[in-house]
Amino acid sequence: MSPEFIELEILRPRMEELHRNGMDFLRDIIGMDWGEEGLGAIYALENSSTHENIQIAVRCTDREKPQIPSVCDLWSVAEFYEREVYDFFGIVFTGHPDMRRLYLRNDWIGYPLRKDYDESEAINPIRMESEVPEDLQRQSEIEEDAARELFVKQTNKIFGDQYIINIGPQHPATHGVLRFRLALDGEEIRKIDVHCGYIHRGIEKLSEKLTYPQILAFTDRLDYLSAHQNRHALCMCIEKAIGLDITDRTQYIRTIMDELQRIDSHLLFLSCAAMDLGAITTFIYGFRDREKILDIFEEVTGGRLIQNYNIIGGVQADITPDFANKVKEYCKYQKEKIKEYNDVFTYNTITRKRMIGVGKISREDAISYGCTGGTGRAAGWACDVRKRHPYALYDKVDFKEILYTNGDCYDRYLVRLDEIMESIHIIEQLIDNIPDGDYKVKTKPIIRIPEGRYSASVEGSRGEFGVFIESHGDKSPYRIKFRPMGLPLVAAMHKILKGAKVADLIAIGATLDYVIPDIDR
Amino acid sequence: MLDFNTITTAIDQYLHSIMPAQAAIVTECILVALCAVLAYVAFAIVMIFMERKVCAAFQCRLGPMRVGPWGLLQVFADVFKMLIKEIISIDRSDKVLYNLAPYLVVMSSVLTFSCLPFADGLQVLDFNIGVFFIMAASSFGVLGILLAGWSSNNKYSMIGAVRSGAQMISYELSIGLCILVIVVLSGTMQISELVEAQRDGWFIFKGHIPAFIAFIIYLIAGNAETNRAPFDLPEAESELTAGFHTEYSGMHFGFFYVAEFMNLFIVAGIASTLFFGGWAPLHIAGFDMFNDIMNYIPGSIWFLGKTFFVIWLLMWVRWTFPRMRIDQVVSLEWKYLLPIGLVNLLIMTICVVMGWTF
Predict the structure, then answer these.
(1) Which of the four pLDDT bands, split at 50, 70 and 90, describes residue A24?
(2) In b/e form, how buried is each residue of A312-340, taking b as 16+ CB within 10 angstroms?
(3) Mean pLDDT in runs of 10 for chain B (358 residues)?
(4) What digits encode the pLDDT tens for the residues A385-441?
(5) Which residues on adjacent β-strands are paired with residue A137?
(6) Which of A42, A370, A505, B246 is buried deepest, with most CB atoms within 10 A?
């Protein structure tokens, strides 16, 4: 699908019109640097009821002071997407309420994803001092007390003089290096400010210099709990672009592996959610069972967390002879164990009290914030890519899309628990029918994608994972963009957290189930 | 049954025979204090080991297995590690209070510990308001926690300490009411007399329904007093990293850790004294043969057996339930446990007045 280029002036009216006509899901905003033609952005939109897709592209010829009108009043998630584009391309979105960098330090010089960006270390050395938050202003009027810095009054542009508490980047409940700043009133949260970028590796920038098979190695390291699905998406996108047909056997293997990965991720979700709420025994139970999937992964792919299994045109290695038996054995085992989780955790009164009615998000907000995956489905939004735009074998197997309506923590938790069963159901339909044939198709040693723009998306473990490639016919992409599953979830945090308590932040964070390397890429 | 009174009296007479009366009393005090602290440490080590093994059993694991047979030496290794670690001082903390806080916590815990009747005559502090003293001594532990949180100059510690204050002061009420139920039933506050009164039947049987309700409330409130799950919010590790003791290291942290374990022991010990007859053996009226056999088991075994049974109950809860939220914790106390406790006290009083007890 190629984007529709429109003039900068008519962007706002066109977007408003699209939004009115039901294009209520902003999948992604992709910042672009087209060199001579200027900077720009591509908006990927979708109609949440008809699943119709459209891409709108806009260009801005002024490279010195590029400005594009903001759309964050139409789609709430744009607030974070636009901050990301500003961070990497320097495009200022006029009308955006909070145009700060999202990932990089605020003393960073230049915009890294621009084609003319100077990478030399002299400009951006490794800074040894800690970053001073932009919003913190020290009041100098109490100069005489400057020696005792304790009494220098600090005010804050964002928070005012509220009691601020910092959570992260090293904190047990953020599941990685995410950082929140909370304004508290007693135990109640008044405001939250999210800081990302502590594990940003610049994968999109790196990819622009690497060949396609090399880029594959990165995808497993985005959301390491949907390693298979991520790589599946990239392989699918490249295969689509070069017109490669893959064998049925590959499709079966990929689908089964995707679902195993999903169970793996949901078990980890369950364990960590329990752990965050203080139920450590359930944590161990979840990990005990997840171990069995990792063993299967290890046997087939050689890796446990990072498997590097999908390749362009197939998979790295054929499945082992007793793969089917092991998977069937595992499915039987797991079905019994779900009952154990229910007994010890799901139906526990405290668990229910901690989760029911906490961290609610409505269906409209879920769509506006682009919260796909379990979060969206818990709010009643049928957002499963496997149903919306079936890929691999998902149109041939029979499975339910799990939907709940309350959108609170408990529903988000139940969605995952039910999806484990649904994934087992999918695997059981496929595992006995894996056809014979090649597990990969031979490809050319050097893969060049014909000029154009390609995108593909899969249902990752925690939402829609998308790949966008703009190729200029080279062996490496001109621009590659991964749609993160976690960024919309984090963007929605401040909406979900209204009136919550500190302890709820932990429950909400656990059930939103973001993975930081996926947010930060 | 072995009566420790004979041994203590013998030591007392021996000391008096070799030195003047005042020196003898001072020596006795030192000896008793030494024994109490040693016993405190010994029980702490047993408790830590037990917690690890019990938790491992609940979680389908083995627990420590490498250091010594069945990991028996693991706790000693950990204590040794804790002892040689540096005690870090924090910038801009209130040095005096910061260093004082762990000692306050341990002191309150040791004081309460010395009230426990381990066997007939094997009890350090025993006087006519023993139960009242236990309440007083155990409640100044919260002061140490509040000071630790306040003086650390850390927001996590501060929130943890405030939570702890709210929680412990609330649940003290329920504990008080439960103890009062037993005081009403027995008519005494002296611990040795409490145990003595249970020789022919434990209070949980004598006081039947109200005593049982009191026991359940006591278990819940006692669990909250010890800051253990599901009431471990003051140190909720997934929210506040370690709560009030975030900034403590080395043996100062060790004091908090040990005090927490020993508070569990103390709560269980008081429960077994008040409801299960302390060191009094299980007697059933009419079965003289059975009662005689029970008498052969030493009192200290009875006491420790009952105490560790209650500890095991609390550990079971600890490793099964998730953590509650602060508003839920406080409303559980003020909206449910306290009214039930008050009504229960009334029921017990009526029972005692009407003579409806066994």
Answers:
(1) confident
(2) bbbbbeebeeebbebbeebbeebeebbee
(3) 72 82 84 86 88 88 86 87 83 83 89 84 79 86 87 84 86 89 87 82 81 90 85 73 81 86 89 85 77 79 89 88 86 90 90 81
(4) 888 888 888 888 888 888 888 888 899 999 998 999 999 999 988 888 888 888 888
(5) A155
(6) A370
Nearest to A354 among B58, B163, B325 (CB): B325
In single-letter form, the type of residue at position A397 comes to V
pLDDT for position A138: 53
Neighboring chain A residues of B60 at a CB cutoff of 8 Å: 284-285, 288
Q: How far apart are CA A108 and CA A131, in angstroms?
A: 10
Nearest Cα neighbor of A408 from A481, A514, A507, A487 is A507
B178 torsion bin: left (phi>0), alpha (psi -120 to 50), beta (else):
alpha
**Minimal CA separation from B281 to chain A, in Å:** 35
Domain extent, residue B280, equals: 89-354
CB A307, CB A315: distance < 8 Å:
no
Chain A residues in contact with B55 by the CB 8 A cut-off are 280-281
Chain A CB contacts of B92 below 8 Å: 150
| Minimal C-alpha gap between B188 and chain A (Å) | 38
Report the top-level CATH class of A4-94. alpha beta
Residue A173 near chain B (CB below 8 Å) = yes
CATH 1.10.645.10 maps onto chain A at 203-433+440-520
Tokens of A296: 């299967």
Asked whether residue B202 is assigned to any structural domain, the reply reads yes
Region for residue B89 given its phi and psi (left: phi exceeds 0; alpha: psi -120 to 50; beta: otherwise) = beta
Separation between Cα atoms, residue A447 and residue A474, nearest integer Å: 9
Domain A203-433+440-520 has CATH 3.40.462.10: no
pLDDT given at position B91: 78
Nearest CB among B59, B92, B239 relative to A503 is that of: B239
C-beta of residue A485 within 8 angstroms of C-beta of residue A384? no
What pLDDT, in 10s, does the model give residues B271-313? 988 888 878 777 777 777 877 787 777 878 888 898 999 999 8
Domain-embedded: residue B177: yes
Contacts of A277 in chain B (CB under 8 A): 238, 322-323
Task: Look at residue A309 and give its three-state secondary structure.
Answer: coil
Domain with CATH 3.30.460.80 in chain A: 4-94
Chain A CB within 8 Å of residue B338 CB: no
* Dist CA B356 CA B350 (whole Å): 8
- Give the whole-number percent of chain B exceeding pLDDT 70: 98
The pLDDT tens digits of the residues spanning A134-164 come to: 666 555 444 454 455 444 555 666 676 677 8
Give the nearest partner residue to A506 out of B155, B156, B239, using CB atoms: B239
Choose the weakest-confidence range: A101-115, A226-240, A321-335.
A101-115
Q: Total domain count for chain B?
A: 1
- Residues A158 and A99: their CA atoms lie apart, in Å, by 12
For A103-136, how does the pLDDT look when each residue is reduced to its tens digit (9 = 90+)? 888 888 888 888 888 888 888 888 888 777 766 6
The pLDDT assigned to A140 comes to 46
Nearest by CB to A281, which of B232, B319, B324?
B319
- Which residues in chain A have Cβ-Cβ distances shorter than 8 Å to B321? 278-279, 348, 350
Would B284 be classed as within a structural domain?
Answer: yes
What separation in angstroms does the CA of A264 have from each of A260, A275, A329?
A: 6, 16, 15
Distance of CA B173 to the CA centre of its chain: 16
- In a domain, residue B71? The reply is no
Q: How far apart are CA B351 and CA A196, in angstroms?
A: 64
Query: Distance (Å) from the C-alpha of residue A264 to the closest C-alpha of chain B?
Result: 19
Measured CA to CA, the distance from residue B207 to residue B213 in angstroms comes to 10
